[in-house]
Amino acid sequence: MISDAENQEIVSRFEKLDFTSLWEGREKVNSLEKIILSSFLKTSDCSRILELGTGNGRLTSTIQQYAKQYVGSDINKEFLAQVKSKSNMEDAIFLASNLYHLPFADNSFSCIVMIRVFNFVSQPFQVLRDLSRILVPGGFLLISINPKPSLATIVDDFKLHMAESKVKSRESKSVTFSRLNISEVHPASSPTFAFKRNFIEQLFHKNNLSVRRKISSGLEDYSLLKRIPLNFYLKIGTMFNFFPLFPTTFFLLQKKQDKAFPLPDIHNILKCPKCGSGITLKDDLSDHTCAECSSVYLMDNDILDMIYIPSNALIADEGEWILGKRKRMS
Questions:
Q1: Cut 0.85: pTM above it
Q2: Per residue in 49-105, pLDDT tens?
Q3: Using an 8 Å Cβ cutoff, are 22 and 190 in contact?
Q4: What is the mean pLDDT of the chain?
Q5: What pLDDT, on the 0 to 100 scale, is given for residue 327?
Q6: Neighbours of 227 (CB within 10 A)
């Protein structure tokens, strides 16, 4: 049985994340991921796309090239402000949310894009269940996952082993050779998780998501392999996507469809993340109030703040996570 019962909701706000430093010198990785994303979007229904975990908008322009309607969401409002400033769609909607409590009604999107986000999720079944819920039947989910084992987990295990050797400590266990379905990755500035490959496929199946295509990547991110042409990585990532050394796999998933289901009007895509009642999206840039529980969601700089974090969640204090310090929501 697949369950998140043993895992707690761990929320990262990424307030200390510097995207400029993170992506410096990684042009080949960025280019390859845009190519993979474009190839998936070309075969998806892009009537209404939700980008979850926009970051600073590294992939947003690629997504908006295909989207007829676009909604961008992240837990960090400063990131969303950056994305909004770069957006080339006048009617784009930007909304801050907690991935574990998405403020969207059932069957609201024809396509969801979530790249480099899933491995920060401590409750993968719950998140995938919610993504499937807000997808229209027949809709598409474009998602990237960093599975184990891989070259990345081997490198991380080696780095951790060397660090612990200096202080004569052996507290951490190998991620690469762990039999657990979910393993916490160290070192990491934010809580990060690696998932067994067959476990990932089980998660998809349990949430009515079928794999249509997958392409693996990540080898291009290593300095010794950067001289290899981009097209070569794309070919081997497509032909040998099952090979266990690839650090990342991109999946094109489709929600199973029993019958056709039209997208709701854009004004009807919201729901209160606290009580689940519907909220009408306003055309004017004003605050939104839930008629059922009276929760107020503020509009700030054209970004609607619908973040809900329950009292029993853990807030990751970035920069201290490697030391095991976890900050409980007060």
A1: yes
A2: 999 999 999 999 999 999 999 999 999 999 999 999 999 898 999 999 999 999 999
A3: no
A4: 90
A5: 40
A6: 8
Report which residue type is found at 253.
L
Taking only the tens place, the pLDDT of each residue in 1-15 is 455 545 789 999 998
Specify the 3-state DSSP secondary structure of 322.
helix
Reading the block at residue 3, the tokens are 């369950």
For residue 7, the model assigns a pLDDT of: 76
DSSP letter (8 states) at residue 287? -
Q: What is the DSSP letter of 77?
A: H
Q: Return d(Cα 259, Cα 278) in angstroms, integer.
A: 24
10-150+194-328 maps to which CATH number?
Answer: 3.40.50.150
Pairwise CA distance, residues 328 & 330, whole Å: 6
Whether 135 has a pLDDT exceeding 60, the answer reads: yes
Task: Using the predicted structure, report yes or no on whether residue 330 has a pLDDT greater than 60.
Answer: no
H helical segments located in 262-323: none
170 — pLDDT class (breaks 50, 70, 90): low
User: Where are the domains positioned within the chain?
Assistant: 10-150+194-328
Distance CA 235, CA 309 (A): 42
Residue 82 is inside which H or E element, if any? helix 77-86
Report the alpha-carbon distance of residue 126 to residue 330 in Å, rounded.
Answer: 23
DSSP conformational letter for 105: -
Tell whether the model's pLDDT for residue 328 goes beyond 60: no
